[in-house]
Amino acid sequence: MEREEVNRREMRSFLMPRDPSIDRRFRPRPNKQLRLFDEVLVETSDSSTDCSDTESEYTKTGDEGGSIDSEIETGPQVFLRLRPVESPSKLYVISDCGNVLITSAATNEYSSNNVNRMEKHYSFTNIFDSQVGQRDIYDKCVGPRIIDEECVTIMAYGTSGSGKTYTLLGDSVRAGIIPRALEHIFTLYNKQVYTAAKLKLINARMVILEDDVTIKEMQIRRQLLALCPDMQAQHQRLKQVIHGDHEFEEKPAEEVSVMIWVSFVEIYNELVYDLLTLPPRQQNLEARRKNLKIVCNKGQVFIKGLTSIFVRSSEEALKLLRLGQQRLTYASTAVNTNSSRSHCVFTVDVLKYHRTGMTTQNTYKFCDLAGSERVDKTGTIGSRLKEAQSINTSLMVLGRCLDAASSIKKKANADVIPYRDSKLTMLLQAALLGKERLAMIVTVTPLDKYYEENLNVLSFASIAKNILFKQQLVKQHNTRYSLFAEYSQTGESADREYISQLEAQNISLRAEIDRLNYDIVLKLQLQEEKLRKELTDTFQTTIHTNLKQCEERQEKKIAMLNREFEAKIASIKRKYEEQIEDLQDEIEELKSPNSDIEIIDDE
């Protein structure tokens, strides 16, 4: 009897199923199998205490003692920012330690999936609630990377309208991450910034430019800056705010020349477009956007034909950023009235030339990912639907790349990272492969109606949190020594100003020559068109005159022929009339009684 009761209890029933907490299929468990005892042994062997899995990241190789191995494994930093809302949902709770977000949905109102209704814990490097401002976010996410002079990729990821673009750009009062980073970079290298574009990154290789190429680069720079909106007052206001929030240190003057270049690209419907191209010279021609190609050569990734602009100050870089922002693709959806329909990447390349002949490259990439969308909530149709499909596809490939990167150290037969499946992952493959530092800022809107979308974003972030990379060295290139480095350190300020004036005058004169040549060519073209038109008009006039004269001659000839034939007809008519009269006279004579001719009747 007892066995029968036990078997009866174990029988499944669709009317009275097991509780989700009892059924092993719905028990909370980690997505990946972790060997916890190995981590415990590693922690006990280390002398450091109270350190998380990300607090020891981004340590430089070759520090004091030189005992740090280059095989140290680190991972990306993942930050969470909660957008300020009027009534935050109670479904999102920050733990007491401050770096774990707890989500749970007790009812079916917010999620139809049993797994999503369970309580979940998401760990982050830091969690920024609605009270945290732009200053603290910059100090935690970007500031240390610039101070350490490391290559880093900053990605802003989240749902549509959750504050990704605001975090990166800010507004006219509260500066975002990118304006603060630009001000930080130019303050850090204030005494080392070189005034001419002598060193450039071409096809992922540093090249020392010749004088004529340098002048051409400076002309392109002047032309693009002339197209930018005036931001002097706004830049001064932002500069005061930034320097009021931060105390950026300035590096001492060393035998180093620093040249800073910026570029801006957009990935729209899996097509790469340059946002800093020069418009056509003729105003009536519409600028056609050219699809660029991403090239991978010997482990280096670059965009073929991308415009990179040399900048001397943070104001110039910010102007170019605003110019490219005006050329981005925006549209209105049901979730966000000004939604970005593409991914965009703003790159700052810091090239340093040392007197010893060694060049160092520091690259800072700021990636604003388009929001992950659900078509049923955004209400996209037509071209908006195609854009949403491209966005979701590229984000899905990015998630696959992060998942593959996180599983490489756990599985010996793990798949290769599929970064070639999307243009976005191809462009960011240096960060996905661990060659650059990676920091992700995840933005979430803590409202009930976005619960399922937020869970997808948080799951995406948890995958990135599990990645482990081997620490990489700073990129260095050995090249020949150039005399322009001597001037940057030994020249006096007065000589620098004079030479800068001469360079500016030279550039302006060359630009004036190009303008005059263009005007001359344009005038010659207009004159040629005018002469062609005059010749055409002359030929048409001559043809019309000849045609008219020919018609007049034909009319005269026809009139003469008419008169001639009329005279002939008149003479013939008179002749026959005379013959008729003669015949009539003969008839009358015959009929007269005095006639001698006898008329004989037939009877």
Write structural notes for this entry.
One of its GO terms (molecular function) is ATP hydrolysis activity. One of its GO terms (cellular component) is nucleus. It is found in: Cytoplasm, Cytoskeleton. This is Kinesin-like protein subito. Pfam families: Kinesin. It is a single chain. This protein has 603 residues and is of the alpha+beta class. It has a domain of 370 residues: Kinesin, CATH 3.40.850.10. It is 43% helix and 18% strand. The strands form six sheets. Strands 2, 6, 7, 10, 11, 14, 17, 18, 19 and 21 form a ten-stranded mixed sheet that branches. The chain has a three-stranded antiparallel sheet with strand order 3-4-5, with helices on one face. The chain has a two-stranded antiparallel ribbon with strand order 1-20. Helix 8 packs across helix 17 and helix 12 runs parallel beside helix 15. The longest helix is centred in the last third of the chain and has 99 residues. The protein is elongated. About 8% of the residues have low confidence.
